[in-house]
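Table 4 source record.
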Amino acid sequence: MFIESRCKLQSLYSGNKYHHFFGYYNKSPWNATGDYVLSNRVDKMSEDLTGTEISQVGYFDLNKNNEYISIGKTTTWNWQMGCQLQWLGGEQNTSKKNLKIIYNTRVNEVEEKANSEYIYPDFCSIIYDVDTKTKTTLPLPIYVVAPDGSYSLSVDYSRFQVTHRTIGYYSTVKEPVLENAPKNDGMYFMNLNTFEHQLILSLNNLKNFQNVASMDKAIHWITHIEISPDSKSILFIHRWSQRVEDETCYLHRLFTINSDGSNLSLLECTDHPLPQLDANFDINNVGFFDYEKSEYQISHPAWKNNDEIIAWTPHNDKIAYHLYNTKNKQVRKIAKDVLTENGHMTYAPNSNWLLTDTYPDTTSNERLLLLYNEDTNKCFDIGTFYTSPTLGKENRCDLHPRWKPNSLEVSIDSVHENIRQQYIVNVEEVLSN
């Protein structure tokens, strides 16, 4: 298999019995001290999921020759996001003590029930204490945890199963019937000390906030939720569609909101005509990655700092990487004529170094791993990785690059060696340029 890397590359697993992956780009698999790396472990590189397939949940101990430590199993996972495995307050914990891990699981799989009523019939989450090896069941599944570990945000993964199956979980028995924009569902806040929870933003309220006509007959959902470094603000994408089976029919808005549900603020909206809704439109002519390369896409937002958000957006009808200032509402384009494709991007902490990737080239099936310096407007191609086109859409393996807390290494998922594995890329030399 073709691979070219300009930096030192290391696989966390040296065997061929198991496959490993972390999932999405917006969370770091490392704990704060860099001793452990979270990972999902499965026995196949690819398969169509039904909600019964088991993934081991655990971490690699880098101080013990990358020994894999399994902490449990789950059937609530997908190839893009895994089981939303993440460190609980790991960014704040600069010691190896009091480490806790949080991940999603299924209600009928937990040994100890949650101490309050489950919000969704199928899905919940678990906090695992690394020191005591004990588990606590939470009444909600999690999407993202605040950097300070004080709260998490939750959505209904059954809604993803209808609207964006790539990141959904199958139900245990029967998929629920979903309203288009219910008053009793949307984004939940859960206190991780008391486990008290509340709906802070309903889909019905989102639909009615600066409503446009395309929303009225569409199904709505919330996705790409991220919490600011100071844990006070939340960004998310509001999406709606009348034709969810064709992702080029998705419409998008980028928002921020305070963690208590106040101060809902619209940053960008891409409502636009949809010829795809025509009865004669042939959905079979839509390619796997046409959606990700759409000129109307709002995609992969991430906090640069407590005031700025990076996102791939069509601001002023020009699709590009844009930085949104949430305080003064100014928007500026970055990486003009340098980064010209949508990718999964994150800034190194307290830095102007941007890490991103590309989707596979339609001819070579190769993906690029890139580092961009905003100060110099220079981009460094630090790796080219082949992916088999036979993996398809829902089972694909995006690189999803993620920073180590010290910003000297990055983690990726890749299948370039015909096995799905996590790799560590040392970028220290590039950062010295």
